[in-house]
């Protein structure tokens, strides 16, 4: 059902699980700053302690072993390694922590996949302009090279940046993620542009200086819903769906996998709207210069984060604001027949993942794919016997198998979000995605496996024992 060596994993990120926000020389990140402001996060919660993985790593490792994972995806806290964001100051306590995590994983025959950036920019760099500043790409490259040099002898799978779409839109367009800016229609395109430049610089650094000896692979993690027209017979709905996919997945995947530049449809739509609104200034969607690194080909695999699907209906735009959705001129809808899992935006559509995988194969030159995040949440009263989540999960795994067997998609790994319940950004601790429950009311932050975790462990064991994984 799954190819030999298939990666069965779970994912986490530093700010969401580590805690220790001021421990042992760590610098503040933009999420430390943002979550300490009133009204930014559910019930003013924050990640100061979170799952306290900085002190309770052994407990996390026990969870990983209990599941029988072959791979574990974690992220490094940039500010824990480099407190001011630059290699001028290296925090050896941070280096020791991640060395310990990596070495413990390998000792248990678990391969680490490391994300360099998962939303938590050092505050010191945000004070200098952050992702809006062109110089951030060089600073990120320096950080990446430090990590490759320090940990790359043992880490063979790297993600440079997690979900640049989310970073750009929620952090700089809607203001609901750190750093909380609402510069509609302007900053998000600039941030996305600098993230692509930063990613490409880091990929080229790895390719030229480390690949020959370390023999690893580097990509960036792109999130996308599956989208389909509300009315497949309506030309406008079909066109709106195509635009929506271009403005989400295509925004970052097109430059990396197809042409080295943004989709022409995207650039034309933005320029058209700018003229319509009388916008005066440099193009809202920047152009890559001759001094920028080559973007095309800067991914050794396609890393996909998938959660849900949407129906798309063509609609009018908002003449009052230069915002992202007005460029798309489409309205996204949840099909009422799709079950909702936890949060209101998460309709569970397992077949959507299969269709999206096929779209990626056909559109982006048939890449090797790792599903780096896929998850199912719960809210309200705790349910350790989470039968509904198990049903969704089993259906999704089946759709991944169909994508491999029937559609010929080269899926090489599947990572559940998340290893354990954690700090879910603006939702705080109110949303639970874990394979393990974390009791945040308990000072010991005890971890207890959900039924979903038990189901996942069985699936991994069955495939390992059948010889379908190495």
TrEMBL record:
Pfam families: Glyco_hydro_1 (PF00232). Keywords: Glycosidase, Hydrolase. GO terms for molecular function: beta-galactosidase activity; glycosylceramidase activity. InterPro entries: GH, GH_1_N_CS, Glyco_hydro_1, Glyco_hydro_1_AS. The keyword Mitochondrion does not apply. The active site is at 373 (nucleophile). It comes from the Eukaryota. The keyword Hydrolase applies. One of its GO terms (biological process) is carbohydrate metabolic process. GO terms for cellular component: cytosol; membrane. SUPFAM superfamilies: (Trans)glycosidases. PANTHER family: CYTOSOLIC BETA-GLUCOSIDASE, GLYCOSYL HYDROLASE. Belongs to the glycosyl hydrolase 1 family. This is Glucosidase, beta, acid 3 (gene/pseudogene). It comes from Kryptolebias marmoratus.
């Amino acid at each position: 059902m799954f190819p030999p060596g298939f990666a069965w994993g779970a994912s986490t990120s530093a700010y969401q699980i580590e805690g220790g926000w001021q421990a042992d020389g760590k610098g503040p990140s933009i999420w430390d700053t943002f979550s300490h402001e009133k009204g930014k996060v559910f019930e003013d919660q924050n990640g100061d302690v979170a799952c306290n993985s900085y002190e309770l790593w052994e407990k996390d490792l026990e969870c990983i072993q209990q599941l029988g994972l072959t791979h574990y995806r974690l992220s490094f806290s940039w500010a824990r390694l480099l407190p001011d964001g630059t290699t001028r100051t290296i925090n050896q306590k941070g280096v020791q922590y991640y060395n310990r995590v990596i070495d413990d994983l390998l000792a248990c025959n678990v391969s680490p996949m490391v994300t360099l950036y998962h939303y938590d920019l050092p505050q010191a760099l945000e004070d200098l302009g952050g992702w809006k500043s062109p110089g951030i790409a060089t600073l990120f490259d320096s950080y990446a090279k430090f990590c490759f040099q320090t940990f790359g002898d043992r880490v063979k799978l790297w993600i440079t940046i997690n979900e640049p779409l989310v970073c750009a839109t929620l952090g700089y367009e809607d203001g609901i993620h750190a750093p909380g800016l609402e510069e509609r229609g302007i900053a998000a395109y600039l941030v996305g542009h600098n993230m692509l430049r930063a990613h490409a610089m880091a990929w080229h650094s790895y390719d030229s200086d480390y690949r020959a000896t370390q023999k690893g692979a580097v990509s960036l993690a792109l999130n996308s819903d599956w989208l389909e027209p509300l009315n497949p017979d309506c030309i406008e709905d079909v066109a709106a769906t195509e635009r929506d996919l271009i403005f989400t997945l295509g925004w970052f995947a097109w430059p990396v996998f197809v042409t080295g530049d943004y989709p022409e449809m995207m650039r034309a739509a933005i320029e058209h709207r700018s003229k319509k609104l009388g916008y005066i200034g440099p193009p809202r969607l920047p152009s890559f210069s001759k001094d920028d690194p080559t973007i095309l080909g800067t991914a050794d695999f396609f890393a996909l984060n998938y959660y849900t699907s949407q129906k798309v209906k063509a609609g009018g735009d908002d003449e009052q604001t230069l915002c992202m959705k007005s460029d798309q001129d489409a309205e996204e809808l949840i099909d009422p027949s799709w079950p909702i899992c936890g949060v209101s935006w998460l309709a569970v559509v397992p077949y959507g993942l299969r269709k999206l995988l096929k779209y990626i194969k056909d559109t982006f030159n048939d890449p090797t794919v790792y599903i780096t995040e896929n998850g199912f949440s719960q809210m309200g009263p705790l349910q350790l016997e989470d039968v509904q989540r198990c049903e969704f999960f089993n259906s999704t795994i089946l759709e991944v198998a169909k994508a491999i067997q029937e559609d010929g998609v080269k899926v090489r790994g599947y990572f559940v979000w998340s290893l354990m319940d954690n700090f879910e950004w603006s939702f705080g601790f109110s949303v639970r995605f874990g394979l393990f429950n974390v009791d945040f009311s308990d000072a010991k932050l005890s971890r207890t496996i959900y039924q979903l975790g038990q189901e996942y462990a069985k699936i991994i064991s069955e495939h390992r024992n059948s010889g379908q994984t190495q």
